[in-house]
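A protein record pairs a chain with a discrete description of its three-dimensional fold. The following entry can be read in just this way.
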Amino acid sequence: MTDGLDPRIPFTVASLAERWGRSEGAVRNLFRASRLPHFRIGTLIRIPAAEVEKFEIASRTDSYVARLTKLGDACKV
């Protein structure tokens, strides 16, 4: 990963929520919507660092495209 995190160490729900500044429930909602792959070790939920990186890149791209679309719509007369 580009921010110096070890890609072999998965995130916990709490650590990912803290990284994103969101609630743990918001992270779990991404699991329910099948938008963020995760795995279980017994009752523990873990999110692979590589999947977090993919999600973050996709989210930035989606946000960029949405802004461009909104800008394009605003320019239409």
About this structure: The chain is about 55% helix and 10% strand.
